[in-house]
Design a protein that fits this description.
Distance between the termini: 14 Å
Number of helices: 11
Order of helices and strands: EHEHEHEHHEHHEHHEHEH
Number of strands: 8
Bound molecules: 1,3-dihydroxyacetonephosphate
Radius of gyration: 17 Å
CATH topology: TIM Barrel
Strand content: 15-25%
Largest sheet: 8 strands, parallel, barrel
CATH architecture: Alpha-Beta Barrel
Strand order of the largest sheet: 1-2-3-4-5-6-7-8
Number of domains: 1
Helix content: 40-55%
Structural class: alpha/beta
């Protein structure tokens, strides 16, 4: 992990009503008091403002699960970067596999969203990962190469200095199947080498690469021991404050 500060992020997906989200966030803010790790939760949109209120004095930061790249306009159902900032967000998850799978997101829309996030000083968490079919047909590295090359096309390395990458193998999301620590390390090393090839050594050394896919209190420690794993993007296990706090305090 070298000198990179770990980030443990919770993606709450489409779970929790506003009161439920506020309750969990409040519990988490009380349970977590750590200054060696960055912590972020990403509740659904309508819970952003009330959750922001209850975590503002804590070490927990707020993130969104998506954004639209335009700053405003007739885009029914969409949300702009500035709206997220005004709701208290510091982070935004971009290109999650569920958005690619169910909502037609692709490398091109991901690229525009990352640009919009950076323009608005939101820290983008770019999600990449191969499907089970990709892995079986030995396409993993080709798929990741494409997602990184196209997703990050047209950026300078300095523009990307806050970027976080999350490696989420689709076959490990919500399935209880975690990549082994060796599988995670192999891919994280590959992703870092891609960043080095495209953007140079300085960014490659500083960029944080998170692992996501069935992260739990009992597997976080071994994942975090890998030299290129800098944190986790946690789904199911972030929904319960106590379980998530155990992951944070790995
Ligand atoms: P799970 O932790 O539920 O497998 O989800 C991972 C994920 O998709 C986080 O973004």
């Amino acid at each position: 992990m070298e000198n990179r500060r770990p980030l443990i992020a919770g993606n709450w997906k489409m779970f929790k009503t506003c009161p439920e989200a506020v309750e969990t966030a409040m519990q988490l803010a009380q349970l977590v008091n750590i200054n060696t790790v960055d912590v972020m939760i990403a509740p659904q949109f309508t819970a952003l403002v009330p959750v922001s209120d209850v975590i503002k004095e804590s070490c927990v930061s707020l993130g969104a699960q998506n954004l639209f790249w335009e700053s405003e306009g007739a885009y029914t159902g969409e949300i702009s970067p500035a709206m997220l900032v005004s709701a208290g967000c510091g982070y935004v998850i971009i290109g999650h596999s569920e958005r690619r799978q169910y909502f037609g997101e692709n490398d091109d829309s991901v690229n525009k969203k990352i640009k919009a996030a950076i323009r608005n000083n939101l820290i983008p968490i770019l999600c990449v990962g191969e499907s089970e079919k990709n892995r079986e047909s030995k396409e993993t590295f080709n798929v990741l190469d494409r997602q990184i090359t196209k997703g990050l096309e047209g950026f300078s390395s300095t523009a990307l200095d806050t970027l976080v990458i999350a490696y989420e193998p689709v076959w490990a999301i919500g399935t209880g199947k975690t990549a082994t620590k060796e599988q995670a390390q192999e891919v994280h090393r590959f992703l870092r080498s891609m960043v080095e090839k495209i953007f140079g050594n300085i960014l490659a050394k500083s960029i944080r690469i998170l692992y996501g896919g069935s992260v739990k209190p009992d597997n976080i420690k071994e994942l975090m021991e890998m030299p290129d794993v800098d944190g986790a993007l946690v789904g199911g296990a972030s929904l319960d404050a106590k379980t998530f706090s155990e992951i944070i305090n790995f």
